[in-house]
Amino acid sequence: MRTPSYLFIVLLIGIFIGAGGTLLISGLTPDVQPLPDREIIFQVSTIDALLESVYDGVMPVSDLSLYGDLGIGTFDSLDGELIMVDGVVYQARADGSVVVAPLDLLVPLAAVTFFYPDITIPHLSTGNFAEFEEYIDGTIRSENLKYAIRIDGMFPKVTVRAPHRQERPYPRLVNALADQYMATHTNISGTAVGFRLPAYVAGLNVPGYHLHFISDDRSVGGHIVDFSLDSATVSLDETLNFMMRLPSDGGFIDADLTADLSDELTVVERPGQD
Length: 274
Description:
This protein is mainly beta. It has a domain at about 120-240: CATH 3.30.1330.80. It is built from 6 helices and 16 strands. The strands form 3 sheets. A 9-stranded mixed β-sheet has the order 1-2-16-3-10-5-6-7-8, with no helix packed on it. Strands 11, 12, 13, 14 and 15 form a 5-stranded antiparallel β-sheet that branches. Strands 4-9 form a two-stranded antiparallel sheet. The N and C termini lie far apart (about 45 Å). About 40% of the residues are buried.
């Protein structure tokens, strides 16, 4: 395995959170080895750091792929949305295009896992994001556990967005997304991936549902703002373990991550949605 070009400082802390879930927080190490337990949600940096305009990438796509085959995130300088499906990382850009992400492209924020579904729901039809949330909340066994999500099938409607690449000095995320790309597509077949995370992850990741979409022909993709389903297959992977990689330098070191940014996160996650 190749050695990443950046220097990592090792700090592994194992603590139990939630219903028996393990949180591992690590700095960057010279030789990064994926943990043998593949039932882990692996995350790079924190959502609050991104909200505070920490957009510099800290891990290349090639290394991120060691930790999962399904996931979401963004890219260096906030250059589009990251969608990992079946181990392939796609970049949904602000011009509406979708490309396979270069292996050396850096990632400032991402969450990935090796997807092994524990729950499969066939033929699910829902009218919007809220209906989907209500159905899944009634299906999972605990709101305190972490779930990776995969949806395959027909989307009668899906609204996606993707941010433009930002230049220094970086604006706050809520401002950077003011002119983001947004489009609604109808009767499109594709895959949505992401996570449903408990309320206690606030500040680290997005509490609740966070999904990204890519069409079957890989021409449409982005962060999901709203969607509906027509007889789609929904799979859930209940994952108890959580590992976080924190940047060892750059904007993360001096960022003020003490503020309550929940209002800004709501605007960022569901623009124009009540």
